[in-house]
Write a structure and sequence with these properties.
Length: 579
């Protein structure tokens, strides 16, 4: 059993215990244990089988959790979890996670109205039963309905990071099957969409039956949805569907092309083929005059080149202009890649709500091949995160000056003196101009007053862009994928102002944000506004989300040169001196 599966069980225990009114200490013990196991670099199963070692030596794991881990690893299940699941409808977990609800309210809804899942809760809201419960009102009922709409659409699709994690788990299981020669994930995951409906897996093998038997032994499958001669679908972890197709070597490229999609891209490919007197299907290409004779199916490159096209990056296969581009003489644009990234211009340290020192963040950035970073802790308005006022900020900048003069051992990373300055509810910035003008890099962002009117929020952001010291707006729309709608903001006004003021806009790379969205990225680029792709890291691992931002940018057709943190530091600094 994988660490992530054990951690998932402990997390579920914590949630169900919370719903059964258990004390906070026990609940926290499970949550901490789950986190410790998820972040453990070695396998719990290995530690347990090593008689010289003790799982209790892992910080966060006590006797109880060590015993439960052993039960899980040896039997594959946990009796206490099964007990709790019998007692508490698991649907209440989803209800508890609706923004503004929590365990207490979820229990009350269950006790008073008998609701056990999201659909029943919706009906109860629509029939105005919820407002009649003590402690709930008309407003609560309304906000539950809004939360439900978001939660229900999120329940159907997984975020890209969740999809990648599930895909690696499946890959790890499948590589143990000797009959598999190659395995790739296709579909929206390969195209890098921000959310994924189901996983589409392609396997090369001469023994489909063996592959399907092995697939059926994947841990955590809830049911086999269907099984044919060469295809099989499973439901995993009670929710996500995984489709698998087994294909021979000679058709692998055609199948990969077909199942990568998108549907719109495939339709356009077929139309082009038809005009050229050919047909394309998931096995290969054929001439209309000889439909049985398939060719060019082994690789995607062959398939596209048979149609007079260059190979098209999967992120662009949305049936927009990609086929026109791939057929033109100029070739493909130089879309941004992870290895182009030279800097990261948004991150936090212990000074506000991060977990690491400036040096630790710089060292981690160097390890990831970056040449420069900007330290951008919160400003004082974000008191919950110990935001910095002028005095602490100037002291931090003095420390950065010091670090830049004496680069520590190892490859030097240039550290820019930055700040994530809040845009106050009433409009002005949270720090005076005399302080901001001493920064190398200022990102401004909205954290409070997110419910203001479109006019108010737009005016605040546009106002910040017009301040000569502000360089960038961080996470410009404030959305959280599957959890929170963007603020009401007129993005065309924001983009136009950024263009006029020669400022840049952030693409926040965190997979719950990916803010800007694809379409706003396209508008920004079209208006000549450069982008900075930043991780907003609060921990060292937080720097690893850069890849999600890069995929998102590629989907919008963003070129390396349009991303300011692909530039060498000298070019970046001279651009920042525009004023
Ligand atoms: P998803 O799963 O909703 O995030 O999106 P996809 O793109 O992964 O869609 P999915 O899983 O339904 O199908 C995978 C690919 O198979 C899709 O991108 C293109 C291809 N495909 C599926 N159905 C059709 C179809 O009716 N016509 C064509 N031309 N292609 C299809
Ligand atoms: Ca899919
Ligand atoms: Ca599918
Ligand atoms: Zn931040």
């Amino acid at each position: 059993m994988e660490n992530s599966e054990i951690a998932d069980v402990f997390d579920q225990m914590a949630e169900l215990l919370e719903l059964s009114g258990e004390n906070m200490f026990r609940i926290r013990a499970y949550r901490n244990g789950a986190k410790a196991i998820r972040e453990l670099p070695e396998n719990v199963a290995d530690i347990l089988t090593d008689s010289a070692r003790d799982l209790k030596d892992v910080p966060g794991i006590g006797q109880t959790l060590a015993d439960k881990s052993r039960t899980l690893v040896t039997t594959g299940s946990l009796p206490q979890l099964d007990e709790l699941r019998k007692k508490i409808p698991p649907g209440l977990i989803k209800i508890m996670h609706i923004p503004g609800l929590g365990a207490k309210k979820a229990i009350a809804l269950h006790r008073e109205l008998g609701v056990e899942n999201l659909e029943q809760l919706r009906t109860a809201c629509e029939q105005h039963q919820v407002r009649q419960i003590k402690g709930f009102g008309e407003k609560t009922e309304q906000s539950i309905l809004e939360g439900l709409t978001i939660a229900q659409s999120a329940a159907q699709r997984m975020r890209i990071d969740q999809a990648q994690t599930l895909a690696s788990r499946i890959r790890a299981h499948m590589t143990q099957c000797a009959s598999i020669k190659r395995l790739e994930f296709a579909g929206s995951l390969r195209r890098g969409k921000e959310t994924v409906g189901d996983l589409d897996m392609l396997v090369i093998s001469d023994d489909p039956a063996a592959v399907m038997d092995h697939f059926g032994q994947l841990r955590g499958i809830a049911s086999v949805i269907g099984r044919g001669d060469t295809k099989m679908s499973l439901r995993v972890d009670d929710q996500f569907q995984v489709d698998m197709r087994v294909v021979p070597q000679a058709s692998f490229g055609a199948a990969l092309q077909y199942f990568t999609g998108s549907k719109e891209h495939n339709v356009a490919i077929r139309q082009r083929a038809k005009k050229m007197g050919m047909t394309v299907n998931e096995y290969g290409v054929a001439k209309l005059s000889a439909p049985g004779e398939l060719f060019a199916g082994a690789s995607e490159e062959e398939l596209y080149s048979t149609l007079g096209l260059q190979w098209i990056p999967p992120e662009l296969r949305e049936g927009r202009h990609e086929i026109q581009w791939a057929g033109s003489d100029h070739g493909f644009p130089n879309l941004v890649q992870l290895r182009d990234m030279q800097g990261d211009l948004h991150m936090h340290t212990v000074a506000s709500d991060g977990t690491e020192s400036i040096e630790a963040m710089a060292a981690a950035a160097a390890k990831r091949g970056l040449k420069y970073i900007a330290i951008t802790d919160h400003s004082k308005r974000v008191s919950m995160a110990r935001g910095l006022g002028p005095e602490r900020l100037l002291a931090q900048w003095a420390e950065i000056d010091q670090l830049n003069r004496n680069p520590a051992n190892g490859p030097a990373v240039r550290i820019l003196k930055g700040i994530e300055c809040d845009i106050l509810e009433s409009g002005p910035l949270d720090l005076p101009d005399e302080v901001l003008e001493q920064a190398d890099w200022v990102v401004a962002s909205v954290h409070y007053g997110q419910k203001q009117s479109r006019q108010e929020i737009t005016a605040r952001i546009v106002g910040a862009l017009c301040n000569p010291h502000v360089d960038c707006i961080a996470h410009p729309t404030g959305r959280l994928i599957g959890r929170r709608q963007p603020y009401e903001v007129d993005m065309s006004a924001v983009i136009q102002t950024a263009a006029n003021e020669r400022k840049c806009l952030e693409l926040n790379a965190h997979p719950t944000r990916l803010d800007l969205s694809e379409s706003f990225l396209m508008s920004a680029i079209a208006a000549g506004v450069p982008i900075s792709i930043n991780t907003d890291a609060h921990t060292i691992d937080g720097m690893d989300v850069m890849s999600f931002g890069v995929i998102q940018a590629r989907r919008a057709g963003v070129l390396a040169d349009q991303v300011i943190n692909t530039w060498p530091i000298t070019r970046l600094l001279s651009w920042l001196e525009r004023n």
